[in-house]
Write a structure and sequence with these properties.
The protein folds into two domains: about 230 residues, Type I PLP-dependent aspartate aminotransferase-like (Major domain) (Aspartate Aminotransferase, domain 2), CATH 3.40.640; about 120 residues, Alpha-Beta Complex (Aspartate Aminotransferase, domain 1), CATH 3.90.1150.10. It contains nine helices and 14 strands. The strands form four sheets. A seven-stranded mixed β-sheet has the order 1-9-8-7-4-2-3, with helices on both faces. The mean pLDDT is about 95.
């Protein structure tokens, strides 16, 4: 099969850190407050601006607290788990690597006993009707390593007694989140906004704040996780007074990314761009004789971390090691040609490809890379068959 004639302009399809916004340049960061304290008046103002711009674009209610926290989305989730869990039983949902990681943290690290895990294989989702909302519930909105998202928020009880704790890192800015049903929501700058790594966001509902100020966990609390003291919320965290030292270069970058989202039409436009990327891939998959979605059900298929499996009968006949090697070779060929970087499936996921479809990726580049996927597959199959 001949190499395609046309190459995508943007070739960064990593699922984190993700592609920068169209037109991004390091020159946009020349006004960054480098060399200045984040506790200076101007430093705190820029951090507060990042918080309030997130509130404005995402439509987060005025009585919800928003904080910038360390250690990316992982740090934000861990803060919630260590600070809030314990008073009630816990339902833990897991259908991919990161959800399974939260299960491990709660059961093996916090060693909480009254837990129930609802699991599903990659490409599927647990039965959401089985969730007990008298308990706290921990879940991912979008499984970054499986390409599976919850279909909507209808399954979350409006009259829940427990807290809903949602890792939404690859969903925010690409999916419509029902804030009234989310008590804790976390994400990182490095996903849908194309921001830089290591900075997380945490959003707390009034119900979550009440838990924070009335419950004192029985275990030692690391300083980086402390959001309350002596029964009072540490309000400064939610006004730009971060627990640790943030990168002001990264702060400038996220302000640039948020400005871009506002310039294209805000959240609705950002979601539409991501859905258009999924639609372009879906049209191609429907006609493909070798590629399929890992998430077979369109209702739960992610529009950001789009995971592809390989349905070819020759591939199915390979052992697990052979399948992994073949999938890796496809990704390596695409990287060698510099047409698609970082598209290998996550290491714990079934062999295949993973293409980021968030708003910072142009649909034209998705369309342009598809013939290259066909070429790389044909080359891989031919080469491996000859070697055999």
């Amino acid at each position: 099969m001949a190499k395609p004639a046309h190459r995508p302009t943007g070739v960064n399809f990593s699922s984190g850190p993700c592609a920068k916004r169209p037109g991004w340049s390091a020159a946009n960061l020349e006004t960054a407050l480098v060399g200045r304290s984040h506790r200076s008046k101007e430093g705190k103002a820029r951090l507060a601006a990042a918080i309030e711009q997130h509130r404005e674009i995402l439509g987060i209610p005025a009585d919800y607290r928003i904080g910038i926290v360390p250690a990316s989305d992982t740090g934000a989730v861990e803060m919630a788990l260590w600070s809030l869990l314990g008073p009630r039983g816990i339902d833990l949902l897991a259908w991919e690597s990161f959800g399974s990681g939260w299960v491990s943290d709660v059961v093996k690290e916090l060693k909480l006993k009254d837990t129930r895990t609802l699991k599903a294989d990659y490409g599927q989702i647990p039965d959401l009707k089985q969730v007990d909302w008298s308990r706290d519930v921990v879940f991912t909105w979008n499984g970054t390593t499986s390409g599976v998202r919850v279909p909507n928020g209808d399954w979350i009880a409006a009259d829940r007694q427990g807290l809903s704790i949602c890792d939404a890192t690859s969903a925010v800015f690409a999916m419509d989140l029902p804030w009234s049903k989310l008590d804790v929501t976390t994400w990182s700058w490095q996903k849908a906004t194309g921001g830089e790594a290591a900075h997380g966001m945490i959003v707390l509902s009034p119900r979550a704040v009440e838990r924070l100020t009335t419950y004192n966990p029985p275990w030692p609390m690391p300083k980086l996780f402390r959001m309350a003291k002596d029964g009072k919320l540490t309000e400064g965290i939610f006004k730009g007074e971060t627990i640790n030292t943030p990168s002001m270069l990264c702060v400038e970058d996220i302000l640039d990314a948020l400005g871009w989202i506002k310039s294209i039409g805000g959240l609705k436009a950002s979601i539409a761009r991501s859905e258009a990327n999924l639609a372009a891939l879906a049209t191609w998959v429907e006609a493909s004789d070798w590629a399929a979605f890992l998430a077979r059900d369109p209702a739960i298929r992610s529009c950001t971390s789009i995971c592809l499996s390989i349905k070819d009968t020759w591939f199915a006949g390979l052992d697990a090691e052979g399948q992994a090697a073949a999938a890796k070779k496809i990704a390596d060929l695409l990287e060698k040609e510099k047409v698609a970087l970082d598209v290998a499936a996550y290491r714990d996921a079934p062999p295949g490809l993973r293409i980021w479809g968030g708003a910072t990726v142009e649909t034209a580049d998705i369309v342009a890379v598809l013939p290259w996927l066909d070429w790389a597959w044909a080359e891989t199959k031919q080469q491996l068959q000859k070697a055999a």
